[in-house]
Amino acid sequence: MKNPTFYTKDRIDLERLKYAVFDNLIEGVQVIDFNWRYFYVNKSITLQGFSSKEELLSNTMMEKYPGIEKTEMFKSLQKCMDERVPSEVISEFDFPDGLKGWFELSIQPVPEGILVLSSDITKLKRADIELKKKLDEKNELLAQIISQKKQLEEFCQIISHNLRAPLSNLLLIGEMLAENHSLDDKYKYFEMQMPIIKSLQSIFEELVQATQIKMDATIKKKKIDLENITNKSIKKIRKKRSINEVNISSDFEDVKNIYYSKKYIKNILVNLISNAIKFSSPERIPTIHIKSYKKDNWICIDIEDNGLGIDLKRYKSDIFKLHKTFHNHPEAKGFGLFLTKIQVESLGGEVFVKSNVNKGSIFTIKLYKINHEE
């Protein structure tokens, strides 16, 4: 760095006169000496820096803006001051009162130190940020519409697949009833109708429940303690089945709290933990581990077990479909995973599974993307 030159007050005033050409320039101009003291400032700089000329000229940059030496902008100033090499940068600046500004800087070495020509691009930058925000919102809305269209198509397939067979059977039995006049046969056909009607009622109730989730626009989100809600979910499971011989552990160090629907997260945890217990292996003590973490700006939860596992080569496309089961178990209905998927997706998330037969499964729930407030 060049050795500082010391001037008398009169000599300083004389040296400043050569910069008077910049006094009324619309861009800000400031000359900083080798001791980081303001040597010259024009009117535009006082407006950009919310300070008077006297305030600036009686201070160093560090005195006027404490902490400025830790900023990226200062690194550019320092480099020009030390290496005497011009540079141009766009920099964000935090003012002491909390306001933010963006400036386009042209930094030049001069005999006194450095000259900084600055253009205030704060309005332009804010407009750019607002435009990007609007584009992100538009893209998010478009993604939501595409997702809803896909869900609607899937839902239509579900209705078609699950209602066609029982309705066809009822029509067939109805035709048999109409054609047969024997009271004994009619009674037999009436009896045949009952389990089909009960099945239809069950399917109807499940579809209504799924539809209500998809159509619910008033889902309330609140701050939820994951450890607390998990313990409550396990307590709910314990009321229905004995789980004394199940090892359940958890790790919520990375994400202790989430902003979510309390009802949904409890249902999701109950469904997945219950499945892990239900389809445990008789060859080993059931072990379940629940972990929360952040990945790619998403809040995620893993539920890992050492149970029977699922043959993904065979069943991957059916995992979350209605009434699809993968093990011979009397309690398997094929509704829990279907409901879990709908609840997760209704709040903009996703659910995945990794599994190996007779080794266990990991269900991963991507709950939601972290926003700036969180």
UniProtKB/TrEMBL annotation:
Cited SUPFAM superfamilies: ATPase domain of HSP90 chaperone/DNA topoisomerase II/histidine kinase, Homodimeric domain of signal transducing histidine kinase, PYP-like sensor domain (PAS domain)
UniProt EC number: 2.7.13.3
Gene3D superfamilies: 1.10.287.130, Histidine kinase-like ATPase, C-terminal domain, PAS domain
Top-level division of the source organism's lineage: Bacteria
Reactions that this protein is recorded to catalyse: ATP + protein L-histidine = ADP + protein N-phospho-L-histidine
Coiled coil: 124-151
Record carries keyword Kinase: yes
Keywords: Coiled coil, Kinase, Phosphoprotein, Transferase
Pfam families: HATPase_c (PF02518), PAS_4 (PF08448)
CDD domains in alphabetical order: HATPase, PAS
SMART domains: HATPase_c
InterPro entries assigned: HATPase_C_sf (IPR036890), HATPase_dom (IPR003594), His_kinase_dom (IPR005467), HisK_dim/P_sf (IPR036097), PAS (IPR000014), PAS-like_dom_sf (IPR035965), PAS_4 (IPR013656), Sensor_kinase/Photoreceptor (IPR052162)
Ranges for domain Histidine kinase: 158-371
Descriptive protein name: histidine kinase
Organism (species): Flavobacterium hankyongi
